[in-house]
Amino acid sequence: MKIARTGDWLTARIGDELVMMSARQGVYLGLTEVGARVWELLETESELDRICRALEGEFEVAPDVCRAEVTVFVEDMVDRGVVTVDAT
Length: 88
Description:
The protein has 3 helices and 6 strands. By secondary structure, the chain is α+β, with helices and mostly antiparallel strands. The chain has a 3-stranded antiparallel beta sheet. A hairpin with a 2-residue loop joins strand 2 and strand 3 (17-22). Helix 2 crosses helix 3. The longest helix is centred in the C-terminal third of the chain and has 17 residues, at 63-79. The model has no long low-confidence stretch (mean pLDDT 94).
């Protein structure tokens, strides 16, 4: 599964969190430290497995828990128009 950023999102770090804004959509989002890290990892198109390996190395999280939580996060970001997913 390949994941890529979409849109015109402007971002700013505030501590460990990331604030995002899409001028086109008129939407603001706030991401936690982990969500912000996922966004950073998506600077270039990436795969779910690569993202999870990076997060597992940086945070104390079991592989199955990481994959489940990142999958839910990515699905939410797809619904919000922040990322796209190519299942091929």
